[in-house]
Amino acid sequence: MTEVTGSPGAPHTEVLRSEYCVIACAEAWRGSGEILASPMGLIPSLGARLARLTFAPDLLLTDGEALLVRPDGTPEGWLPYRQHLALVSGGLRHVMMGASQLDRYGNQNISCIGDWSRPRRQLLGVRGAPLNTLNNPTSYWVPKHSRRVFVAKVDMVCGVGYDRVAAHPGTERFHRIPRVVTDLGVLDFETPDRSMRLAALHPGVSVDQVREATDFELAVPDEVPYTREPDAEELRLIREVLDPAGARTKEVAG
Questions:
Q1: In sequence order, which residues have a C-beta less than 8 Å from that of residue 66 and are 6 or more positions away?
Q2: Where in the sequence is the domain holding 23, given as residue range(s)?
Q3: I need a surface site. Which of 49, 138, 195, 212 has the fewest CB within 10 A?
Q4: Which InterPro entries match (predicted)?
Q5: Tens digit of pLDDT for each residue in 107-142?
Q6: How many other C-beta atoms can be found within 10 angstroms of the C-beta atom of residue 117?
Q7: Would residue 254 count as lying in a domain?
């Protein structure tokens, strides 16, 4: 029987689910030092900026074009694209990407749904996912945890998972998937076979909810902690400084 530890089963009335997601994303960069954070999406961006303002002051943030920026968006340095690519290829960046599909070993698909030669849905395309996953730590953000995303087999591999890296020795030097954050909790790959594991639940979510929303057998430890509570200063920063308009609640309700 799985025991859930940490925060109580119901969320604190003053903390929204979206705010737990921001905290979980921020934790991806804890202890990173002076590396480039590349969050993709609103809540990962809020998480990276919150981390920079609190426990990760050395974190570098980019506007995605040519500048290093402060958490408020004002420039603090020059980052031309060639230098950005040098950071990527050298493992000095931690990107948090999205995923249309993820399997139990962390293979990610953002390209198409169905047979790639005649897909039912055309998505973003492979883009930089292979380079990201083989050259620097890559985490994922999934705003809606469901069986449509967490699939037994991805329709096309864009981001590289642990099973494919194991099949090609020498490719694992910078490959690492620290965490997958969803609207239900946090997942990682800290298992003997590097398959996906339930690492934490957001308060108010049960283990059964996560299992029901996952189309493969998920590793679940005997004790599952809750996502940590934000402190008063973190809540103030999220609500008054980083996202006063409350856009986070449009991405994750509840």
A1: 78, 79, 80, 81
A2: 3-246
A3: 212
A4: CoA_trans_fam_I, NagB/RpiA_transferase-like
A5: 999 998 998 888 898 888 888 888 888 888 999 999
A6: 6
A7: no
